[in-house]
Amino acid sequence: MVVAEGAEEGLVDDDREEVRKELGYEDITDESGNKKNLDLAKFMVKDLGKYAKRTKNIALTIKYLNPTYAIRTTPANSSDAELCHRLAHTGVHSVQAGFTDFSVGCVRNQQVMIPISLLISQSSRQLKRRDHEYQRVIESNG
Which of 15, 26, 84, 133 could form a disulfide with 11 if both were Cys (CB 3.0 to 4.6 A apart)? Predict the structure, then answer.
């Protein structure tokens, strides 16, 4: 599940205030006096765990990843936007089709669903690229 920054804007006003109160964000403002955006994903992680335990008696292991630092290190270009769109499209439509326990990725330039069990069972691999494109990436990023 992916939760975008600013997702709280889609909440109904009463729900937004309830979530802000529960997370302690009710009176927090930035330097300009605007209400600070809350991290809705943290709320959802906590709430989904409680919901699964209460309704299905299932203990969920939920991982919260905040990729902000990695995403903002280099400026995005149109290729990045297209790749993100295709991966998000694959992920969302797969979930809506009822698939679970998977991650999305690119294999041979195709968007695919990769079972989590397969990802976990594989040993880590190191890519040893020597081509010009990779060298340009190394040169531009240090």
Answer: 15
